[in-house]
Structures are given as structure tokens and as C-alpha cells.
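quick one before i forget lol
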Amino acid sequence: MMPELFRVEHRAAPRWGRGGKQCGRDMRTVGWKIGLAPGLGTAYHNSAVQVCPNGDLLAAYYNTPKEENDPDQTILTMRLRYGSEDWDMPEPWPDFADAADAAPVIWNDNGRMWFFWGSPRLLGGPPFQYMTSTDSGATWSAVTLASLSGAVGKFTPQPINSVVRGRDGVIYLPVDGDGGNSVLFASRDGGASWSDTGGRTGGRHTTFVVGKDGALIGFGGKNTNIDGFMPKSISRDGGKTYEKSKTPFPAARQRSASQLDSTGVRALVLRRRRDQSQGNRQQGGRRIRRAEQR
């Protein structure tokens, strides 16, 4: 199982000691002395977890030395091999020097793995860059900076957790917009080029699924609301425009996640600081709701 040392906690230093007691030692100052990779920070969040074609689990996080978006922030990546109960040792990778690497997203596209992330401090950088793998992440392609075509509106270089492929084969990657909205970048040529679809959702960190009718359905996100409820943004024209309405769910302060299973049932995970509402299953501050797919 994952060691307690690597429990994900935003803006909190992981500490360990005998009998579970904290002893005031964090990984940044002590970890390298016991054989851990240098460069591991003190705070981890925004988990990206994906099942590889070979059954392994690949996980990646913000790896923050002290504060979020410090220049030497990297991605922390680790693997749980199929059949194992112990994770491989974490590594600070990928790492663009002084670029504040952030917001990892891992996508298994029918056996081809995609690893997206952004770099907020990379001067003149694109909204995201990515690598691909065809051997479950044993090897990766060279990093590709998103090649953009057409007009590009305001964005924050932070990819969001849900990459989807439309009925027409177009790949859609959501990215934070400017302030309280998100934008879909689309590729019609397998990632060779990308375009800003033009529209903006009703929230930051909007997470997407493709509806049964082919519509792009977005939930969230952070620090935005409609009458105190989480916004929903539906696009029927590939992200050019959105129909915005409120959901039955209270507004979330952090990223949400959505998933459509093979039965057509949509699962929506909402992360909130504190939630005492009735009728929801609570796990570590998260609420899990299931609703019939539209």
C-alpha cells in the first residue's frame, strides 16, 4: 500500500515518526538522506491516476518544494505495478527548469498513453505540453509543446483532469481559462495541432464527459457558482458555445472529477473543504454522486 509518507495533502508537509507520531522532519530536508530522490518537495495535490494497458497504475501530482507555483515546482510520478501492494519509489519527473511544472493529466487512449501538464512560469509557453507512450509508460516520446492554430484566447497553463474524444474522433483537452472559466483545446489530427474552440465554461477546473447525444458536458468548477450551486456547461458545437445552468450540487471549492461508465451512468466526485449534507457518501472530504447519463 502507499506509504503514509506519500499521503497527498495540499500545503501540508508530510512528516513521519515512530508510532505514527510526528517528529518535525519533512521530505525536503531529510528524504534524500534516507535514499529518496533529491527534489521531492513538501506538498502534493491534484492527483492524476490512470490504469496502464498492462494493468499498472500510474500516478502523478504537483510536487511543491514550499509554495504552489514556486519556480522549482515539478511533477512527482510513481507507479504501482500490477499485482503489487507497494508503490515504486516516487521521482520528481517531468521537470522543466524554473517553469513551475503543474497540473498533470494522464490519459489511456485505447492503449496509447498521453501525459499532459502545464508550466505556468515558462515564458511564452503554450497552454500545455505532452508526451506519449505505447508500452505502458516504460518509455516516452520526446516532449511536444502544443502547436496552436487559429486565434487563442486567454488561458492559464493548467490542464484539467478529463481528456475526452468526441464522436467524430476529435480530442478535447480542457484547460483553465482566465479567472472563473475553462476552455477546451481540440485536436483533429491526433495531437499534431491544437486549436482554442472559442467558448468558455461557467467555471474554473471544469471536468468533462461526452453525453450519449455527443454533447460535451462540463461540471464545475472551483470558486464559481450559480445561486450557490455548481455550474454545468453543455456544448453542442464542439466547445464554441455553452448552455450554462446550475446543478443540484453545492458549489465546490476544488477540482471535481467525472466519469461515464459502460452502462451510461455518470459518476461525479465533488471535493469540498467540509460537507455535512445528507444523502451523500463522504470519503475524506469528498462527496460521490451518481446520476443517470443524459
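fyi Residues 27-30 form the longest helix (4 residues).
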